[in-house]
Amino acid sequence: MARLDARRIPGVLADPSAWRVILLYGEDQGLVQERTAALIDAVVGAPDPFRFAELPREAAVRPGALVAEVTAGSLTGGRRVVRVRDATDAMATPLKAALDANGEALVIVEAGELKRRGKLLELVEGAPGACAIPCAPERGEALVATLRGLFAAEGVEVDPTALEWLAARMGEDRLQVRREVERLSLYAGRGGRLDEAALLASAGGEGTGPELDDALSAAMLGDIPGTDRATRAAFADGATPVGVLRAVLRHLVRLREAAVAMEHGASVSDAMSGLRPAVFGRAQGPFGQALRRWSPAMLAAAAQAALEAEERAKSGGTGRPVPDAALARQLLLVLAARAATRRG
User: What is the catalytic activity of this protein (predicted)?
Assistant: First the structure.
């Protein structure tokens, strides 16, 4: 069985009865965990220790351990679920043995990013009764659609323009997205409505939080001490290194788009309002000042540096990459140093 088409994923999550092994893998571990929870709920429903087992990876790779769990019966009746986290290609051999054993349990295997020709992914994609579900961060219209659905489930309506703005400033990890939706839903109240003013009153401006917004603004205006102070505050408030790097890249791309519009005759105000989403609230002042300081060519070079920084942050070690906070901080300070040489 090949990787599932995206349109089939909701159906499988709601009813995995046709599957014996489901591999959830990819960069967005928040989405992996969310989909695992949906599968467990679909099979087991209310928590039942006799129908659910979680094997540490070290135990799951031991000969016979996974087969024993897959073929074990439930004392309370019903199908069992066996969960294995942090899987690597070493899981391929025990997982094949479990598939050959024809057990009744559903095996949910969680992994980080996997090599396309790796043993684990090739096994699952080629085995009857098994499927692989990639869990990549959602962006653009896909993220907007997800946000709309999550807010609807909370009984909160969000204006379309405000929803686009929120998607542009939000991190891409599903757990972070869900926590932000829950926070904003509490702010609005069930049956409430969120517009641009409400979002600005409860959140920051262009980044993923007010501290990171301040770091971005300070960096683009050449305020080196302010950049360092706000970046440290953003990390203390829970920002992740990869989230910071991506927020920097999004900010640079938006600045360059507006800067190009100005090269073609648009005013600063028109260039900002022409972005989608437009620049709102307290972000307008620093954004406009940065446009007067940075040329499109400089912004393009800075965006390339941000892309390279993310690649370096994700390149170390095996399994799921662990980005480096120092690298993200360094990027912002380098941008601030460059901006300091420019006059607004």
Answer: DNA(n) + a 2'-deoxyribonucleoside 5'-triphosphate = DNA(n+1) + diphosphate
Last-in-domain residue among 96, 114, 134: 134
Instruction: Name the strand (E) or helix (H) holding 110.
Output: strand 106-111
Query: Buried (b) or exposed (e) across 99-120, using 16+ Cβ within 10 A?
Result: beeebebbbbbbbbbbeeeebb
CB neighbours (10 Å) of residue 301? 15
Q: Are residues 189 and 251 in the same domain?
A: no
**First vs last C-alpha separation in the chain:** 58
**Amino acid at position 341, single letter:** T
Both 298 and 193 in one domain: the answer is no
Distance CA 330, CA 244 (A): 11
Residue among 337, 342, 323, 328 at smallest CA distance from 27: 323
Would residue 307 count as lying in a domain? yes
321-342 tens-digit pLDDT: 444 788 899 999 999 999 998 7
Asked if 169 contacts 207 with a C-beta cutoff of 8 angstroms, the reply is yes
pTM over 0.85: no
8 Å CB contact between 116 and 141: no
Question: Which residues constitute the domain of residue 150?
Answer: 138-203
- Whether 1 maps to a domain, the answer reads no
Q: With bands split at pLDDT 50, 70 and 90, how would you rate the model's confidence at 344?
A: low
Cα–Cα distance list, 63 to 92, 120, 132 (Å): 12, 16, 23
pLDDT band, very low/low/confident/very high, at 1 (cuts 50, 70, 90): low
From 103, 134, 165, give the residue that closes a domain.
Answer: 134
Are both 242 and 196 inside the same structural domain?
no
148 and 271 share one domain: no
Reply yes or no on whether the pLDDT at 206 is more than 50: no
> pLDDT tier at 343 (50, 70, 90 boundaries)?
low
